[in-house]
Design goal:
2 strands, two-stranded antiparallel sheet, 74 residues, globular
């Protein structure tokens, strides 16, 4: 990763190859925008919150992602 003018990298990422074994993977890069706290929070909590989402369990992944990002944002 390139850090531009900053002294450290503030982004985080997720590589979850088997959210549902052999069927669903998740990849994400989260920009720190001048601070790493939120990006690291998303990295730490997104997958577990997504797996709890009822729409995710039903296979409605687009809605599940939207709802989970809104929950994380809140």
């Amino acid at each position: 990763g390139m850090q531009g003018w900053r002294k450290s990298m503030e982004d985080s990422h997720i590589t979850a190859l088997d959210l549902i074994e052999g069927e669903v993977s998740l990849f994400g890069v989260f920009d720190g925008h001048g601070g790493c706290e939120v990006a690291l929070f998303v990295e730490k909590h997104l997958v577990s919150e997504l797996k709890k989402n009822e729409n995710f369990k039903k296979g409605n992944y687009k809605q599940a992602l939207t709802e989970t990002f809104m929950l994380i944002d809140k």
